[in-house]
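hi! just following up on the protien thing from before. the input was this:
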Amino acid sequence: MLNYRPLLFILGVFLSTLTAFMFIPLLFALLYGEETVGAFMIASLVTGTCASACMHQGQSENIRLNIRDMFLLTSLTWFIVSLFAAMPFTLYHGINYTDAFFETMSGITTTGSTVLSGLDTMDHSILIWRSLLQWLGGIGFIVMAVAILPFLNVGGMRLFRTESSDWSDKAVPRTQDMAKHLFYVYIILTVCCCLAYHVAGMNWFQAINHAMTTLSTGGYSTSDSSMAAFSKPAHWVGTIFMAAGGLPLLMFVHSLSQRSLRIWDDAQVKGYFIFLVFVSCSLAFWLYHGHDMTTADALRLASFNVVSVVTTTGYGLTDYTAWGAVANVAFLFLMFAGSCSGSTSGGIKIFRFQIAIAIMREQLKQQFHPNGIFKERYNGRPITEDIVRSLVTFILLFMLVIVLLSVILVSTGLDPTTSFTGAVTAVTNVGPGLGPVIGPAGNFSSLPDIAKWSLAIGMLLGRLEILTVAVLFHPNFWKY
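and the predicted 3d structure came back as:
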């Protein structure tokens, strides 16, 4: 039987948090005398009322969650919060609910795909709401990736299981402490990013918005030109803090507690930085010799765009699809990569590629020495059979979702490039795709409604690591 009371109560807590954050854009609307005052007042009233009803109905002296509850709660929370968070958009100048939900899901999953244009003259309250959604989605995913997904053994993430990845009574205080420390570090990094952007030439409003969407690796901007509207120093600030957003936030927590930043001890972080430097330098070399650029410009453009795509931020700086076939193929691959587990980024994640390489290395040794016993380790931990099974299942489902989503998009009349890269960018939470329609120079507004709903679901699946949602459709999930 479904344990609905704790689910309702926790869902009510999330909706009440969303209600509280709606007052921030409401204040901006009042400050600037914008027409969105009514939109945010209605949205906060409806959301707050539903939050109170859920918390009242779900009140219980003892809230305990089993594995089934955790899977269901994780999927329900992101979907229902998106339904309510879309209200200010749909109440704003008549944006239809499909576009509102797409924009919200893209924001809260930190994907960064957008259907809106005219951002340079858009109301401050709407711009800050978009940025807040990405900022909240970023910290929400970090806590989920550190505390919940390893416990559920999603996609090989048991390797990152800590004492906080346990929902027993004794572990709850540790989980709460961990979430609090992660939130503090997230705020500190956001403030540092905001100050750096301001020094680099952005005004305070631009700096605040871009700091939130940079650390969350979301990619929403206050300009239709995205980061191309700002100075070269701002591009380097963005590159540095996007790369920081792609790191495991728990690493910063441990570094502060131990007063030592030992980044190079982690295989995932080491691989992440080596990968970024190698690809950025390779593309910079390509631009310098093939596109008549200075060394500084080639390195800036290559580094920014590589970090933006690998961390699944999706900021636009230049149309890299015009760099030639080699660059197009490179960026298509980079969409899949992702950065580190426990970061705000999407994608497959670096550690899964490293585990796959370790498994391949083990298999090759076994071919040469059939009677030998080889056991690969990752970060000092053995790669067990259940981790391998979970990883293989994740990769297969990941690719299957992309294929199915591509077929759906093609059936709506979209061209193959738009359909395939749209599916990839949704599931990997990158933002822009390739091609003239949804590439770095375009947006998703011209897509049919069914394509937008399909992509929104794809974003949610990608953000929740596929398996978290897929398990809900297995008949055995509902049998006990």
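The chain is about 65% helix and 0% strand.
The CA atoms of residues 12 and 54 lie 5 Å apart.
cheers
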